[in-house]
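[INFO] parsing input record for S-layer homology domain-containing protein
[DEBUG] input buffer:
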Amino acid sequence: MIAIPEGVDPSKITTGIIVDSDGTARHVPTKIVAIEGKHYARINSLTNSIYAVIYYPIEFKDIETHWAKEDIHDMASRMIISGISEEIFEPNRDITRAEFATMITRALGLKPGEGNNSFTDVNSDAWYYGYIKTAYSYGIISGYGDNKFGPMDKITREQAMTMIVNAMETTDLEIEVEDIDKTGAEYVDFSGTANWAKGSTAICIEGNIIPAQNIWQLLEPKKNVTRAETAVMIRKLLQKSDLI
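[DEBUG] output buffer:
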C-alpha cells in the first residue's frame, strides 16, 4: 500500500499506475482505504513493481445526462476506457470483441504482449495484438474455433458475460449459482441464450453484473454490447472483486 501524505485529499487520487520499460504508463487496480484515520492507496497488482498514484479526471460532454455517466467517468479516469475524442465518448456505439478484450486486460492491470497468439485473424501489426495475447494467456478469451477470434466482430451480451466470468478467475471472485435455469428464469428470454453461455450468464445475473435491458426484464443475449454497458460491466467486476 502507498501512504497518502497528510494534506493530500484522497478523493483527488483516481488510480495507481505502473510505468513499463518503454515509458508507457498503465492502470493498476487501486482502492483508497482508511486505516486508523490514515488513508492509503491499496495497489492490487499481479506483479511486483514500482507504482505511483495519479489524479487523472476525465469527463465527456456527450454523457452529461446518460444513465452510465458515473461508470464511464470512473473507468476513463482510471485509464481503462477512452473516448472517441477528448470530449466525446459515444456511449451508445457498439463495441468489438477486440475492444472489449482490451478493456478487460487494462482493467485488471495486465501487461499487453504476454503469452502467445494462436488466432490466425489477429495480425501482429494490429493495435490490439498485445492485449489479445495477454487476454488469451490468462484464459479471458477464446475463439470461434479453427483458430479464429473475430476481433472486429461486434460483441454480444452473452459473449461479453462469458469474458467477464473468465476474468473472475484472475480476480479470485466467486459467485455461486445453485440452479442455472432457476436463476435465468428471472429473465423471460433467458432460454434464448446459447448453451455454452448459460452458466456465465447466470453468474452475471446472480452478481448483478449486467442489468436488464428494460422494464420487461429482457436479457437480450444476442444483442450487441455498447460502450456504456462495457464501462458498467467492467466497473462492477472490479468493485465486486474488491479491486477498486
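[INFO] Strands lie at 2-3, 15-19, 25-28, 30-35, 38-43, 51-54.
[INFO] shutting down worker
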